[in-house]
Amino acid sequence: MFLLIALLLIIATYATKITSKLGIPVLLLFLGIGMLIGSDALNFIYFDDAVLTQKIANIALIFILFEGGFNTRRDSLKFVFGPALTLATFGIVLTAAILGLLIHYVVQIDLLYSFLIGSIISSTDAAAVLMIFRQKIIKRNVSTTLEVESATNDPMAILLTVIVIQIISGETRNVPVFLIHLTWQLGGGILIGWIIGKVGSKLFDKLEAENRGYYHVMSIAVSLLAFGLADVTKSNGIIAVFFAGYWLGNTDFAYRRGVGSFVEGISTFSNMAIFLLLGVLVFPKNLIPVWREGVLIALLLIIVARPITVLICVLPFRRFKLKENLFIMWGGIKGAVPIVLATYPAVYGLDDNHFIFNIVFFAVFLSCLLQGTTIGWVADRLKLSILSLPKSRHSIELITTQKSDIDVFEIQIPEISSIEGTRIQELNLPPDSLITSIMRGNYIIIPKEDTILKKHDILFVIASYKEIDRIRSELSK
Fold first, then answer.
1. The domain at 406-476 falls in which architecture?
2. Residues forming a β-bridge with 445
3. How many Å separate Cα 408 from the centre of its chain?
4. Beta carbons of 207 and 254 less than 8 angstroms apart
5. Termini Cα distance of the chain
6. I need a surface site. Which of 105, 172, 205, 225 has the fewest CB within 10 A?
7. Which residues belong to CATH 3.30.70.1450 in the chain?
8. Has residue 39 got a pLDDT over 70?
């Protein structure tokens, strides 16, 4: 078993090099590998335990959402705060409501169960969106809106799914108590996330360990602490984890860069583990009876529910042109969280025959296939793509176990630049900054005073946060 898991992870990791070139979402790759080794194909693993899947997936979601919050920058959030956060909160409810009604009247499924399916499939996938935007540079206001939306909408989708399940199960008969509980779920989760974010930064500052591995252990502990404290206080652990990551990621603390790299790694592993596990859980033969429902739901979501939601949530802010709104509509790619949420009804005894899970799985798979593989083409057609500069194959970081306002920054000289042909000694850089190395092509150059800069050079500059904007302006003009 362990040998098989190791081989799967190695194969899946290397296969991402192919999928990234083809523009295929990683989700499809991992799900496909899981289905291939499962009971209906090669039969290497027989697995049909939805309860265990949910437990494992919930643990993985802690680290995925913690990393999502950690890498959500405050300045990015401010830039698109209105439309992105509206899509991530009210937009989730609106999508679930519109899609639920459509499923009920078009697919002929019971109304409450239609709303349950709509809630489950309402969130967009951060992993898929981020992967695509790493491959293709899109106009900043549009890409940032989709990134922030996808990183922040999972908690609301999870909360909404649980609420609908409670309604179906009859746990909401006392409406005042239910509303108080709902308010605490949301508000308490945010409050606990803020507390843990502040406490976490102090814990990192006070650690002062020579072994950097202890900081990695601390990052796991902080994310679990947020979830555990929320669980004990009966608030929403997923919301608490995301906001703990958000406030911690936007705070200056010891070994921050190292912690960021670690949580990105554990989040990537968690995504891979979830996708592979969910692929194994699926019996492809069980998808055949529900393919019509799955296709209808996917099309209703992509063509009707998502566009209406974007129009209602984004138009009032008057931030985007028509083509940008169209791209945001097409960018609502589904992913891991809806499939994980699709296991919830079975856990609560509402989906014993896995009808809901199979429908959601099919619809998500189709969303990834249609939207994920064409979003780059759509960006080109709408003229929202930006010619990207060469990416560095090297990384130079300042990793310190002490708080510091000094860091290493990566700055690229653009295609058209007034400093091309300029010697380093002729630059007007602050005296307390230094160009430590230059990436040119596939080679690293050790800079000297008479080194001549060229277009597409990638400069690694060590400087203070206070001076970096001035330095970027000097090197990018």
1. 2-Layer Sandwich (3.30)
2. 438
3. 25
4. yes
5. 56
6. 105
7. 406-476
8. no
